[in-house]
Amino acid sequence: xxxxxxxxxxxxxxxxxxxxxxxxxxxxxxxxxxxxxxxxxxxxxxxxxxxxxxxxxxxxxxxxxxxxxxxxxxxxxxxxxxxxxxxxxxxxxxxxxxxxxxxxxxxxxxxxxxxxxxxxxxxxxxxxxxxxxxxxxxxxxxxxxxxxxxxxxxxxxxxxxxxxxxxxxxxxxxxxxxxxxxxxxxxxxxxxxxxxxxxxxxxxxxxxxxxxxxxxxxxxxxxxxxxxxxxxxxxxxxxxxxxxxxxxxxxxxxxxxxxxxxxxxxxxxxxxxxxxxxxxxxxxxxxxxxxxxxxxxxxxxxxxxxxxxxxxxxxxxxxxxxxxxxxxxxxxxxxxxxxxxxxxxxxxxxxxxxxxxxxxxxxxxxxxxxxxxxxxxxxxxxxxx
Length: 385
Description:
Helix content is 24%, strand content 22%.
């Protein structure tokens, strides 16, 4: 039974089609689709819409179709679209009414698209689609994509434990549905996502202190400064100007370098080993710096913790290629996207493996089959093209 039918039965009320009041809002074009990231609970919010937009934008541009984002002012802003966030529901109704298609989570925009019988692509994670889909609208106009949930039943929860089931839907599946409904030919059948890292939606800026940064570079941003890849404490101090630093190091940093940039240091992440001296850690601790000690040496973790018993030593397990469910599908056509930007000598890279190989950041980068690359899986989307 559909939820609306259940509510009507419970309340003894009759279901009738709602009115759709609209209010004009100027739009500088006539051909567009509407995208909304809005949802009333976290478990209904899909996190990879930006990748969907990246897939469909070039093809929509060729067809002369723009993309408008509607929703609450505080919703995540998508890049490369026209923003109409924070508009009233009447304005949103007007935008939906005059659109070619609506793409949204299972929330207001999807159900309004159904009432107005607009083409619709909508996503379902914590609920069965059959009980929560738009009650009105032609089924031929609607593509309802339900997460496979790894074979589990719906959670019926606003806050899901472990992971969001809706995020098991891959971006290319949604992009294909949008373009198919619009009858726009596309090559997206050739895209097959193999893995989405848990931090893939979190933008991360990392810098290697091997050059003097221009004042405007990453101004007022939080940066991971990778002294573990290039140790130069003198250049480190130059990176502190008008930036907040999370310093990652595997060596002791003398206090004379840290103290002059104290207000700009958020944290020092110290990669420790059996050779790490306690005095270096104690010196930084006495300076009042927030310390986070970690090791990747799982074999000797007990000895390291015993040696550094005064401090908590966290184990960072190294990711490997075999963590991919479909690692056997890795081939010469395997590509990746990264949420990281790693800057070195004024050039940008997608990962430390790319930096070591001298491959600058670009679209459809080929995966690098090395331990260094797989180590950063949490920040990557791996796909075959």
